[in-house]
Design a protein that fits this description.
There is one protein chain. The chain is of the alpha+beta class. The protein folds into two domains: about 110 residues, PH-domain like, CATH 2.30.29; about 60 residues. It is about 30% helix and about 25% strand. The strands form three sheets. Strands 1-2-3-4 form a four-stranded antiparallel beta sheet. Helix 1 crosses helix 3. The longest helix has 26 residues. The protein is elongated, with a radius of gyration of 21 Å.
Length: about 220
């Protein structure tokens, strides 16, 4: 994968600096923009809302006492179309500018459309994880950090777990083959923190040294 022009300053795609000795890239991926548009930017829900508003307006304009004609409906439909196009464009740009990386030491998130930010999340600072699956194998992998480690919600958006505002969870959004990536993350976490335990969705599971990690079950990474 070649670095795009706007990220040519990177030492390697998705990495702000060269990896130290002993660290290697295991997986890299980016969000699927269509999935991101639906689940992060809620394009489907907004489309349904606009359609309902147009239907209500059409009913009002079709009333015998209405003298406004159909021009207001055409204007509203045009504005709604522009709004949806902007949302779809933002989702596309967001997916295009994002690159998630798993190394054998950390998770790296390069995000941002105008202002590029890179977050390094060592496995030793990840307390838990959860997987939310979507259609066609897409999935969100949310990472719970230790209480003393915090990243601003606005800095992460839209790469954060929904409804976790006070304690934002960095999230790999809409990654293809989410289940396989989750299993890979668990294996890397277990290798980096052998003998410790990973909390996922309120369930504590052990990750003993040199043991094969338990495959994710019921939307969990462990």
């Amino acid at each position: 994968m070649k670095a795009t022009h706007e990220h040519e300053w990177e030492a390697a795609p998705g990495l702000p600096s060269a990896l130290p000795a002993g660290e290697r890239v295991v997986w890299q991926g980016a969000p699927d923009w269509r999935c991101l548009a639906v689940h992060a930017f809620h394009v489907r829900k907004i489309t349904l809302y606009f359609a309902l508003m147009l239907a209500v307006q059409a009913i009002n304009l079709s009333a015998p006492e209405s003298a406004a004609g159909w021009k207001p409906l055409a204007v509203a439909a045009s504005l709604y179309a522009v709004a949806l196009a902007l949302l779809l464009g933002t989702a596309w740009f967001s997916a295009r500018s994002t690159l998630y990386t798993l190394t054998n030491k950390r998770v790296v998130m390069r995000i941002g459309i105008v202002l590029t930010l890179t977050f390094n999340l060592p496995y030793k600072r990840i307390a838990g994880a959860s997987l939310k699956g979507y259609a066609k194998g897409m999935g969100d992998i949310a990472l719970a950090l230790h209480p003393e480690d915090r990243i601003g919600w606005a800095h992460l958006w839209p790469h954060q777990r929904a409804w976790h505002v006070s304690r934002p969870q960095p999230t790999l959004r809409c990654v293809p083959n989410g289940q396989q990536v989750g299993e890979q993350l668990l294996a890397l976490w277990s290798e980096a923190r052998a003998g410790e335990s990973l909390h996922t969705q309120g369930v504590k599971t052990s990750a003993p040294a040199r043991s094969h990690p338990t495959p994710p079950q019921h939307g969990m990474l462990a």
